[in-house]
Design goal:
CATH superfamily of the largest domain in chain A: NAD(P)-binding Rossmann-like Domain
Largest interface: A-B, 88 and 89 residues
Oligomer: homodimer
Number of strands of chain A: 9
Strand order of the largest sheet of chain A: 3-2-1-4-5-6
CATH topology of the largest domain in chain A: Rossmann fold
Largest sheet of chain A: 6 strands, parallel
CATH architecture of the largest domain in chain A: 3-Layer(aba) Sandwich
Number of helices of chain A: 12
Chain lengths: ~290, ~290
């Protein structure tokens, strides 16, 4: 399959990400349909020209019409949906997703999926603090990373199609990672940082904090404003890997604590020089 | 003393903050002189019209001319300087500073200072990742907080003068805190956040991180690019209070860790809802 404009794309789950995909894909000229939970999301998307057709029911015909199906659902809802409705897929359809952790969905779904349909996982690393199709915006893809996460079961063609989708949507960098490397990377870069922000914000109940803060605290706690339903599910879906990264981080934090406690200025400065060197390298590449 | 334009202001230590003060004060029409370590800083500041006169020597006359002296030095250098040179101050002069921690300087300096000179401490909560007079910019004060930190020894007049200085320089909020409350607040808002950023950056040596990151990790590690000489001194100057805040934070982080480890979704979600509510409150006030 090639990504040509006459393709019919179905989005399942019209929230912030599903809506942003729909917006971007419709601008590119594709036929974009959607199935989602709330009628208000369908109404909003139709009124604003984000989709061509939308429904809150599982309508076999619009599933059967789709060449590509993009799932933007919570992991456990995603798996349930496939189990119950995969008989409606068109033969040869490619399905992909936006799930933030992969080992908890990819293997199960590939194992249960019909042989004539292929699931290629993807993780668009874009978002906003606000949720819902009302806040969707395909501009969030600019400057962001998009990761294709294939397994041994995936074909070269589907991997390419999925990468092309990321490029077409305007992501700045499209790359390919194994499931295990993806989930470890995400545990460190995204899940651990959210754990830190939540913990930091829960560590002080002084209502006057904001009167005295500088930018550091604002930056570190921006993501403490968090969707608790989604993130608790994502944390538990990647539990072992996340706990491993949390262990490494707290050991490093405890090392710094001990240097301060022992007045070990050289130990502290070594850590600071390492963090500075790494962060500068980081700046160059961004 | 009132802040009128004919006042003579001496800045001791012409780095990023000293230079930014000089720029702002000179624009306001004050006579601004400076004493600093490096001739290159004096040359730069004179060439760019940041100061009226500068020297790398302790010249008794320019100290004696100053109505207000602003110290932008490391804590231990600041104390040494006062000890060695306070005989040159004009009688009735007011001295202030920009030091990021207060208990380690305020009491010692007020105890040793001549009776006819008053030291009123201040903390301008503004900065940049880059240092030196070459990067100075009085625009960094806009949107930033300025805290006056008096002790029982300070007069109402000096507290007002110091607050006026913050207002004149363009800080968005000027407030007054006790030494103890200031240092506890700073330990939490500023020092702990730098400890977290340094630890996070030191927890992973994968050179490919940047290829896959989202905004969260970028935001949390921006301040991991850190002046190790200055920050190690600031941490040790506020050691007991900082360790206390680090203890509170790591207990909270460990609580979240345990919830994840025990699959306690409700426990996690309670913490996330608390952090979200607090951060939203924070957004409103910013």
């Amino acid at each position: 399959m090639k990504l040509i404009k006459k393709l019919n794309i179905l989005i399942v789950g019209l929230g912030l990400l599903g809506g942003s995909y729909a917006k971007g894909l419709k601008k590119l000229g594709f036929q974009v349909n959607a199935i989602t939970k709330e009628q208000s999301s369908v109404d909003f998307a139709l009124e604003h020209g984000i989709i061509d057709y939308g429904t809150t029911k599982v309508e076999p015909q619009i599933i059967a019409d789709a060449d590509i199906v993009i799932f933007a659902l919570y992991p456990h809802v995603f798996k349930e949906w496939i189990k119950e409705n995969q008989q409606y897929f068109k033969s040869g359809a490619v399905i992909t997703d936006v799930t933030g952790v992969k080992s908890c969905v990819v293997y199960d779904i590939q194992a249960m999926l019909r042989d004539d349909v292929e699931f290629i996982a993807a993780h668009p690393m874009a978002g906003k603090e606000s949720s819902g199709v009302e806040n969707s915006d395909d501009a969030i893809f600019k400057g962001a990373n998009y990761i294709v996460v294939p397994t041994e079961k995936n074909t070269k063609e589907a991997i390419e199609l999925c990468a092309n989708l990321g490029e077409l949507l305007g992501f700045s960098k499209v790359s390919v990672l194994s499931v295990e490397k993806h989930d470890r990377m995400i545990a460190f870069l995204s899940q651990l940082t959210h754990c830190i922000a939540v913990s930091l914000m829960c560590s002080n109940d002084d209502p006057d904090l904001v009167e005295y803060t500088g930018d550091s605290f604002r930056d570190l706690t921006r993501i403490a404003n968090i969707n608790d339903e989604m993130w608790s599910e994502l944390f538990l879906s990647n539990k072992e890997v996340l706990l491993e990264q949390m262990d490494i981080y707290r050991a490093t934090f405890n090392k710094l604590y001990d240097f301060i406690n022992k007045d070990d200025r050289d130990g502290m400065r070594d850590m600071m020089r390492l963090s500075t060197a790494r962060r500068r390298e980081f700046n160059k590449k961004v």
